[in-house]
Specification:
- The chain is about 50% helix and about 20% strand.
- By secondary structure, it is α/β, with parallel strands linked by helices.
- The chain has a domain at about 35-140: Nucleotidyltransferase, domain 5.
- It has a 5-stranded mixed sheet with strand order 3-2-1-4-5.
- α3 (about 100-110) links the parallel β4 (about 95-100) and β5.
- α2 packs across α3.
- The longest helix is centred in the C-terminal third of the chain and has 24 residues, at about 130-155.
- It starts with 8 loop residues before the first helix and ends with a helix.
């Protein structure tokens, strides 16, 4: 009843349902910090039967900063990821941790030469582990596709036709 506006509880509930998740997501988003460490990684995904690369950036807490899908896995694609990250985060990190792909180093030297770059086996586990949910979904989908193929092939086998032609 503030300022003469009468709003029912149901209206407030609908507003909370509509705008609440966006508001909560904005609150949860961590503010960029110049002492951050970015973990970068690329993983191959198949989209429509074609091979693509999912480039992902994760911070030191495991929060996914950005994802981008590219057809290529070269310096140009790595530069595009770094530029997007810098725009979204509003600055550069203290350190970048990557796997041993040379495109990361070349892109970093061109875009942000003062940032420390580490690439060593095992250092990039933070980014690698962020791909696990994606890989689980792919396995489940592959299993369902294989199961459907098995059902189709078993239904068209001669044995099934013989068994179905017998009187019950």
């Amino acid at each position: 009843m503030e300022r003469g506006v009468i709003v029912s509880y149901e209206t407030i509930r609908c507003w909370a349902k509509k705008f609440g998740p966006v508001y909560a997501r904005r609150l949860r988003r961590k503010a960029p910090n110049p002492t951050d460490v970015w973990h970068l990684d690329a993983v191959v995904v198949t989209i429509g039967g074609r091979k693509h690369w999912l480039w992902r950036a994760v911070d030191q807490d495991g929060y996914v900063l950005d994802e981008i899908v590219q057809v290529r896995r070269n310096t140009k694609a790595a530069k595009r990821l770094l530029i997007r990250l810098m725009k979204k985060q509003g600055g550069v990190p203290k350190r970048i941790v990557t796997d041993k792909l040379g495109s990361y180093g070349a892109a970093r030297r061109q875009i942000m030469p003062v940032v420390e770059h580490r690439s060593h086996k095992g250092l990039n586990n933070r980014a690698e582990s962020s791909h696990l949910p994606l890989r689980k979904r792919e396995r489940v989908m592959q299993r369902s596709v294989r199961q459907a193929r098995c059902n189709v092939s078993s239904a068209s086998s001669p044995q099934s036709e013989i068994s179905s032609s017998r009187p019950i």
